[in-house]
Amino acid sequence: VKIDPMEIADFKAELERLHSASFGWALSCCRRDATEAEEVLQTVYLKIFEGKAQFRGESSLKTWLFAVIRKTAATEYRRRLLRSFRLTADTDEVDDRVSPFESQSESFERSEAQTHFQGALKELPRRQREALHLVFYEDLSLREAADVMGVSIGSARQHYERGKKKLRESLTRLEMGYGNNWGRQETPSAV
Amino acid sequence: MEIIGDDKKLRALFSEAKTADAAATPGFTSVWHRAQARSVKPRRAFNLSFALVAALLVLMLGSLAVWSYSTGRVRRYEAAKNKSTPAVVTPAPANNPEKAKTDDEPKVAAAVPETGIATPVHRAVRPRVKRSTAQSAAEMIASNGKTKAEKTTIDSWQSPTAALLTSPADGLFKSLPQLNANESDMKSFLPGRSNDKEK
After folding, report:
1. Residues A68, A47: contact at Cβ < 8 Å?
2. ipTM of predicted complex
3. A122 and A9 in contact (C-beta within 8 Å)?
4. What is the residue-averaged pLDDT of chain B?
5. Are A30 and A77 in contact (CB under 8 A)?
């Protein structure tokens, strides 16, 4: 079922406005794999275009879009995993594929602190990484982050707090230069 | 959301990552157009293959249904043909103690009219479960029905040892005088006469 072209045009403008943030969130959901993130974003736009994903106004557009991206990324990841199990050729393809963020040239360009930070972020459990990304990267409140993650606000808060603690510990361990400060615990009013 | 303390540093790291990501973000128009292109090609191919598979499936199911129906019909016809052979039924004896039982049991053969002439009847179709419980009684009724036919066969029946009963001296036994024989014939068998003649 395809939705009205006028609605599509309105949606398209909104999606364009949120495109950069959407790509950042897709990157986070795809473990910083830019190619995969782009494919996920394409699939999300396709779902919207075909009316498979419909915004009913129950939350903000950004929250809804991010939830769709998260779900699509999880589905794509499972599909990719199955494909890699089935065909060794596909596995080779996946292995050979070079993500822009994993390539050496770009790694050199990025600051050392940023590289350590991304490494520490990857070590976090998925939920905690998502909670931190949504709050710090996308400027969402914990309530909005909980909506995107499909969990209760209490659960989102727990993921957020635990994620922060683990991230601090990892960064301290990596001796990024922030080590003296990470040990100090403060409880921010996140909501 | 108020961010204080070391959260500011985390935010700074995240915003730095955000800036790097923004530079690498693909253009919205290109992603959108590729999504639209994807929406046409794969779906058409999927629909075509789906239609082919569905048509094949329907064809297979249809042929299977026709085949099973035809074979079932032939079997039913054969079964009906076997059942339609006339059953010889004779009325049960009036003083038959098993007659009381037959009233309660399912009637395998139809009741015989008072004239005593057996009419060909079809066997009633009974459920399999009931049939098993009434099997012995039904066999009994069937044996009653066969009495007449058995009479004819019993008359002409000979035991396997009947040949042993015949002997060369059979004529001697058969030459005994009959009660309604004439006097001269009777005298020939009297022992006194023979003794007199000998004297």
Report:
1. yes
2. 0.72
3. no
4. 70
5. yes
**CB neighbours of residue A16 within 10 Å:** 15
pTM of the prediction? Answer: 0.50
User: Residues 6 or more apart from A134 whose CB is under 8 A from it?
Assistant: A25, A66, A140, A144, A145, A148, A149
Calculate the CA dihedral of residues B162, B166, B170, B174 and round it to 10 degrees: 20
User: With contact defined as beta carbons under 8 Å apart, do B92 and B112 qualify?
Assistant: no
A85 touching B (Cβ < 8 Å): no
Alpha-carbon distance of B47 to B44, in angstroms, equals 5
Which residues of chain B make contact with A34, given a CB cutoff of 8 A? 24
A111 contacts B38? CB cut-off 8 A: no
Give the burial class of B20: count Cβ atoms within 10 A of its Cβ; 0-12 exposed, 13-18 middle, 19 or more buried: middle
> What residues contact residue B187 under an 8 Å CB cut-off, 6+ apart?
B193
Tokens of residue B91, six digits: 């009325």
Q: Where are the alpha helices (DSSP H) in B25-155?
A: 28-83, 99-104, 128-133, 135-145, 147-155
| Residue B198 sits at the chain A interface (C-beta within 8 Å) | no
Would you say B119 and B113 are in contact if contact means Cβ atoms under 8 Å apart? yes
Cα–Cα distances (Å) from B198 to A162, B51, B62, B151, B195, in that order, read 147, 120, 105, 53, 5
Question: Residue A141 and residue B22: Cβ atoms within 8 Å?
Answer: no
CB within 8 Å of chain B, chain A residues 56-75: none
- CB half-sphere exposure, B125, CA atoms < 13 A: 6
Closest CA to A26 of A69, A57, A77, A65: A69
- How far, CA to CA in Å, does B2 sit from each of A130, A158, B153, B164? 19, 17, 114, 125
* DSSP, res A136: I
Place of tokens 């399912």: B106
Question: Which tokens belong to B115?
Answer: 């004239």
Question: pLDDT digits over B131-167, tens only?
Answer: 555 677 777 767 666 666 667 677 788 888 888 888 8
Going by C-beta distance under 8 Å and a sequence separation of 6 or more, which residues neighbour residue B50? none
Tokens matching residue B47: 């629909």
Rg from Cα positions in chain A: 18
Identify the CA nearest to B110 among candidates B138, B89, B140, B126: B89
Q: How would DSSP label each residue in B85-100?
A: SPPP--PPPTT-TTHH
